[in-house]
């Protein structure tokens, strides 16, 4: 590429450098382009990065955006054999030593979490449940119990932490805006799966350390394990330098290696079992269970992992001793099936990968019992129905109204075709239905039926009385199974001589009384069904 920044370009070009306006957004774009497309000469003694200039770049803006504080921009001119009278043009290149670039912490981010996973803060040591979008900083630790997590690094590399693992983030550094990172992790125990973006420039770094080994990576897909007996690695793509610190060996694609905590610390290298051939699956699975089969070859054991295709979330894992497996439960969505053979040492080989799309549709259940309008005495009745779809779960919904705006209770979600309500039903009239679900997002609803719970309504108790002139306002408690209330007024406490009776829809009534006389009032709840109400206690009324 033409580079006009050579000796003898003239002092006018230096003036042009000073007047150009910094445009940081353009500089960021050029960094990414330069790091991806430029290479270094093998003879360069110091690792370098080649930056491609954009319109508006100046020596000053480049220094502010890319260089560490202690690096003078004049050193950059000298390093590129330039006089102070050069002119920078869009498309020209500058060679920048890696150790001159700015370095700043660049946190990682949690992409997805499945099951129980915790984060231990590197600042205060507190533990918190790990959630999607959580920021991971230097010093933080991830503890996966029965769960797993996928974490994205600043350069787009991904780490998937398997269950029962402990991973410590020792360094998360980015070189200015170059897109290059220095990532160093410690796998104290357990297993991690990594997909590391290619490192094409010396100085960028990705390392995973264990108590017994170190793995230095330049862009690869690999799996690494650590326990009290040692460390192991399996390389699916690229290559990894693996072994004791200072004694690593390059492990190529398709091979694995192990290092014991005892003995002479020699790296044992072996070829991995090849990827099994998974027999073709239907383009879309519309019912489960669905059988997955493969060509077994010479291996007796396999591991099948299922991941969400969009997020990389680990969904299921199965150790198998045959050449087939029935997938019985999956929500609707797209998945990746990773199937690996396991050799006699218990080492998983290169996984065969197959896509799977699940699209289950819920069907409207058929109600069985209770019958329409049936009167029941048991306050915890059993509801029954028939499924008309596959791989469905369902629950009963019980409400006061046929639009189910006044939901009273439900049953638990379950794959059964019968259920009990979560709480007893008080006497009254109800409506019930069954909602079925398939694939996590497909819903179907049955017809609606009415039922009546036998019994008597509870007594309505007067809760307050307000006097104003010759008027008295009476308030009583609300009975949620009542359609209205009946009020009686008497001049004696036995209510044998009723002087006033009224049916009232509300829970309050105003009465006009003759001063100086004693009255007694009581209320009972009414129902539109066959239920009977009970009178609440009488209350004395008196106006001076």
Strand and helix layout:
Blueprint: H1 11-19, H2 24-37, E1 48-52, H3 59-66, H4 73-79, E2 93-97, E3 103-105, E4 108-114, E5 117-120, E6 127-129, E7 135-136, E8 141-144, E9 148-152, E10 158-161, E11 165-175, E12 181-195, E13 205-209, E14 214-217, E15 221-227, E16 230-237, E17 239-244, E18 247-252, E19 255-260, E20 268-271, E21 290-293, E22 301-308, E23 314-320, E24 324-327, E25 333-342, E26 352-358, E27 366-369, E28 374-376, E29 383-386, E30 392-399, E31 407-410, E32 418-419, E33 428-438, E34 442-445, E35 449-453, E36 462-468, E37 471-476, E38 484-490, E39 498-504, E40 508-512, E41 518-526, E42 539-542
Parallel strand pairs: 12-13, 28-35
Antiparallel strand pairs: 1-2, 3-11, 4-7, 4-9, 5-6, 5-8, 8-11, 9-10, 10-12, 11-12, 12-15, 13-14, 14-17, 15-16, 16-19, 17-18, 19-20, 21-24, 22-23, 22-25, 25-26, 27-29, 29-32, 30-31, 30-33, 33-34, 33-35, 36-37, 37-40, 38-39, 38-41, 41-42
Pfam family, one: FecR
Protein name: Peptidoglycan-binding protein LysM
Signal peptide: 1-27
Tell me about this structure.
The protein is mainly β. The chain is built from four helices and 42 strands. The strands form eight sheets. The protein has an 18-stranded mixed β-sheet that branches. Strands 28, 30, 31, 33, 34 and 35 form a six-stranded mixed β-sheet that branches. The chain has a four-stranded antiparallel β-sheet with strand order 23-22-25-26, with no helix packed on it. The protein is elongated. InterPro entries: FecR, FN3_dom, FN3_sf, Ig-like_fold, LysM, LysM_dom_sf. Keywords: Signal. Residues 49-96 form the LysM domain.
